[in-house]
Amino acid sequence: MSDGPTLKPVDFVVPEDTVLIADGGVATELEARGHDLSDALWSARLLLDAPQEITAVHAAFFRAGAAIATTASYQASFDAFAARGIGRTETAGLLRRSVELAADARAQAGRGWIAASVGPYGAALADGSEYRGRYGLSVAQLEAWHRPRLEVLADAGADVLACETIPDVDEAQALMNLVRSLGVPAWLSYTVDGACTRAGQPLADAYAVADGVPEIVAVGVNCCAPADVLPAIGPASATGKPVIVYPNSGERWDPARRAWVGPASFSQQLAAQWVSAGARVVGGCCRVRPADIAQLAAALT
Q: Quick one: which residues bind Zn(2+) (predicted)?
């Protein structure tokens, strides 16, 4: 892990004449390296226990051709670490560490962007709530909960904040308010079910919260079925902002068996359709591995 000063972030710009390749499932690759992530902290636990493994996974995705490393901060929060007896100062240090680990991998690769993952409130509950939304909290309450983490990550040296796997419009609005007040670049990515957010709102309404927020540099979807990507690109494109898509492999999580089941459907052929429809940043989420990203990079760049 780097002991030097925090790197100054670089303006994150989606180029008009090429496709940016994002990384895949960091947690998936950590599990493939033998780590048990059944803990409520998920991959964020390794910020404490095995930070060098996180850097190794970022490096693997860079070698595969990814241009973006997404930090292992998705499930990291002050509340979650407090439940382990970890204080606010140390938690802030762990959030910063997530960016430093990605920066170490970028230094090895000699290129790339760092996206600081900002997972939804539901992820911190560790009960699947991020796939339902509607937590019973107001926009103001969600804003208050997210603010401390965003303030740390915004100051940690990442190039862009990845507000990802957002299940409903209320939480997106809270994040838009924060991003605007902090003045940092971010993308907004919903998890969807068909043509709606997981909470059931039409995507046209969901993306409208990014209107008039210049700090939002891309909008799109992630952590969804590959088949749900194409219908989401039109509503996302209507914002006039670049479109980012990074779905799961297509396998389905069976909570009773605690295992992924069914066939994978993520493919470079589907990704080519997404690009033709207007996607400018393409990657993967759960169960998408460096080999998959390598195929995307070979086919799309």
A: 223, 285-286
Q: Is residue 191 within 8 Å of 197, Cβ to Cβ? A: yes
How many angstroms separate the Cα of 105 from the Cα of each of 26, 61, 62, 63, 132?
13, 9, 8, 10, 34
- Residue 10 has a pLDDT of 58
- For position 3, what pLDDT does the model report? 40
Helix 268-277, helix 290-300: angle, nearest 10: 50
Higher pLDDT, residue 252 or 139: 139
More confident residue, 256 or 182: 182
Between CA 49 and CA 226 the distance in angstroms is: 33
How many C-beta neighbours within 10 Å does residue 82 have? 12
Which residue positions form the known binding site for Zn(2+)?
A: 223, 285-286
Angstrom distance (rounded) from CA 86 to CA 68? 29
Proportion of the chain above pLDDT 90, given as a percent: 82
Fold classification of 20-300 is TIM Barrel (3.20.20)
Beta-bridge partners for 57: none
Q: Left if phi > 0, otherwise alpha if psi is -120 to 50, otherwise beta: which for 212?
A: left
- Tell me the binding residues: 223, 285-286
